[in-house]
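Side project, low priority. Logging it here so it doesn't get lost.
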Amino acid sequence: MENEFASNYVKMVFDCFADDLGHQKQELCQRLLRKCPTPLAIKRLTRVEKREICEWAPEMKRLFAAIDLGQAVTKSHEDIIGHAYSSVEVGQEMVARFQDEEQENICIACTDVHNDIIAWKVLFIGGGSECVLYPDKIFQYALQCSAHGIIMIYNHPTGDIRPSSQDDSFVRRLERGCDFVGINLIDFMIVGRDSYYSWQEDTAL
């Protein structure tokens, strides 16, 4: 499997350059593969390294532009305005949305009385390991949307979906706040790269 992946990567690099480059195509491919033997190596290139590679030939600048476009396409998603009838459905959709995200995001989905999602927003963006939560901003947005209920979604770029003691403490505060302002806390979800944690599912066990 690993050899097949490596072979596909080499082929993709080779296909990025036009055939009319002649011998230069082979030279650029070999030079890039020596510099970046894996896709991850390309992802980890610094700005300085990218500028240096772009000086090899005009084709390298076009290559990085194509990579940037591909990343933008990968990170683009349909607006999440739909139904919130099932934690499984919402959880799977959130996994698909955040599986390539490298920063922590705190999101809120607002629902109406029929559990239809009427609004969605990323409220906070953190680093690779933490994100500060501000409950007042959460309730402010929910009240502005006239939300009947809210779903909090919190992605973990590390892939670990186990709630921490801080997560447990926060969801309790969130639940008390929802009771106070008259909003239903439908769920609190932690999303990893291929799975999710649902507070609603956990408390129902």
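Brief comment: Residues 95 and 191 are 6 Å apart (CA to CA).
Revisit when time allows.
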